[in-house]
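Marked as duplicate of an earlier ticket. Keeping the data here for the record.
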Amino acid sequence: DTGDVPLVVDMTSDIMSRRVDWKPIGLAYCGAQKNLGPAGVVVVVVRRDFLETAQTHLPRAMQYALHARQSSLLYTPSSFSVLAMQLVLEHAHELGGVDVLQAANEKKAGILYAALERHPDVYEPYCLDDSRSMMNVCFGLKREGDTRRFLSEASKRDMHGLKGHRNRGGIRASIYNWLPPEHIEELIGLIDSFATADSPASKGSRPTTSRRQLLLKTEYRRFGQYHAEYVKNISHGGLLLSTDLTVGEKISLRLSFLGFLDPLTVEATVRWSEPESDDGSAQSGLEFINLEQKAKDWLDTLLGSAPKAPDYRPHRVLLVECNPFLREVYSQELVNWAEVERSHVELVPARDIEQMLKDFDQNGAELIILDLDGQEGTAIEVLAKMRAALDPNFPIIVLGGPAEIETLGEVQDSGLLALSKPLNFGQLMETVSRLFSVNMP
């Protein structure tokens, strides 16, 4: 209840899906593409007294009062979209109007939410009962790795567009006015069968062993071209890459971990793959095949299958960061992580490479973290300057923009870890944690 203050609402998703109390609404903005027709036209419902208070210094295209005075013909409209919307409205009227559509929507959403609630150990609706949408049913999967497996199984059944919003993740089933009830039944069939399967992995999806978010460098050749990127996470059974590969494809991978542990070459099969989506990232899940004992031992050492004992051995880290604010942020994050891990870390910040190298010559270090922002020269030149003063395999974590990191990705340097900003600090610290626990010099 906003009293005398008019509401301004975006009704793009639920316009014409249910009855609405229009009294408190001053303006409603409705894109047509969900329930009213094809993209290309917008409906703005505005109260006359509210329209009279509108600002007039805006660009003409944004002045709704001008559109109203010109009967929505201020500019040439998208006539096809308008015609299509008229046909949709006429069809809705013939069906019985909003009341009929609302009853159908309540039934569709009701049986879908009921299916999720039948399996509380597997699915978790994101909203409470009184806040649930009839148009977008959003939910998560509780078991590790199940979201990707669910999407993969959906794709096999020719169900697409179920990946959740990039800011929330999970699953988002959009069930707008004109989605037939039989499509809801098909989705419910997937929900039930997926939840009751004895082992999702038995259907050819990814291994269910726990994974670590470690940033290992991965090198491989595909179609005659060299590729280098960083693993998003890894387990004893496989790994995740930010690349759209072909399901069933076999690839030989060379894994290296910042110069620690001898590089490992393994064979892997692509078990699932997703093309670039609305969050801008492609992903593929690969399963290791025919691992030799040497490879299993390598993974055991890396992943630390045994419980980690408290580590009171001091670790010295040098941080090169020109921005004093970021120096403080990174320092505090590292201290917070060290407290959680019960690991003693001495972080020594430096404003430039010269200051860092002077400290390194005098006191040494186990790891260097370098932010390229503010450094003189290209990313390759900065790295060459560092390597000229350090052991060729000394671990260096470089932070930079996407273009700089892409350039460094072509450098064959087993002691280099190049990360694009904005930074996933949790993933960085998980990697640092493993560095401090496997064969540090």
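See parent ticket for discussion. Confidence is low (pLDDT under 50) at residues 198-211, 305-312.
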